[in-house]
Design a protein that fits this description.
binds iron/sulfur cluster, 2 domains, TIM Barrel, 41% helix, Sulfite Reductase Hemoprotein, domain 1, alpha/beta
Length: 357
Amino acid sequence: MIKIKRKKTRQVKVGDIAVGGRSPITVQSMTKSKLHHRQAIIEEIRSLESCGCEIIRIAVPDRESVARLKSLISEGVFHVPLVADIQFDYRLALDCLEIGVDCIRINPGNIGKQEGLVKIIQLAAKKKAAIRIGVNAGSLKKDILKKNKGHLVDSMVDSALESVAFFEKHHFFNFKISAKASSVLDTIQVYQKISDKLDYPLHLGVTEAGPLLQGSIKSSLGLGILLSKGIGDTIRVSLTDRSQEEVRAGYLILNNLGLRKYGVDIVSCPTCGRTNTDLKSLATEVEHMTRNITIPLKIAVMGCVVNGPGEAKDSDLGIAMGKKKAAIFVKGKVIKRVETDSILDTFYQQLQTFIDR
Ligand code: SF4
């Protein structure tokens, strides 16, 4: 496999996680639950952590949310760095920094007066917190759009450059930049241009990407093309689906580009006239069974014993379904044949031996 040469950016710290420099590209997500729904958000945070989310972002829309976040922090709910997402009101960002969040995500364009932004920068510096400058295609300043004659990509780049100059003027450098558009091509162009001009770490994402299938495809294209050029230090796949799916999609993108080795990669055949089983259900069951495994494993689910093991010989462990018998194979070699009804149990036992090794 070709090795992607990553652009070396400055390194920033988000809590105890390094972003940029030579550090691995991290996978992050944002909770969908509200802080007001205490149990739901605790469960979502636990679930995100268990599937490998390395940085968790939470929307903090009001004062009451700050108080609720404070109680979660003091109860030790978070085991990964926490980013508070703030819109409009700089005082909420200050409150979040006071309660100990690791990073603030703001769009400097919608924070309003510069005094508020300066206060955020000063307090973040004091607390050794990071800031994510989040330029968004939907909320660009009118004067920047006018200067660029409405050209979205150039306006987003200018907006990012303007914010960076402001942060540098105030001697704050512990920040990363995101500049997400909902169009894949715009997103690629914006990040490419920013990467050409700056060496701060970049948080990649295609915004409002859509439901599971569409969102995963758009994100794979946008993020994949940028990552393949060595651009990007941390990623979020935005999906109209469970946040855990965002994390899984993120790792799948990185794994398939050889940029991380994390969790299970399922290889399953498309089925054909030789298939005598409901392979779609079987692959779904295997996917559920393996979704919290964090060690890198390639698992195959194939529709026939004749071609399956050979077609998936680069997988670590696999199932090939026959008419009455099914086979378990390792690196393309059949190691066990069992009745089709008991294939999942046998597979599970075999999987445990891989995990325990
Ligand atoms: S593995 Fe067998 S069933 Fe699946 S596509 Fe190939 S030949 Fe068809």
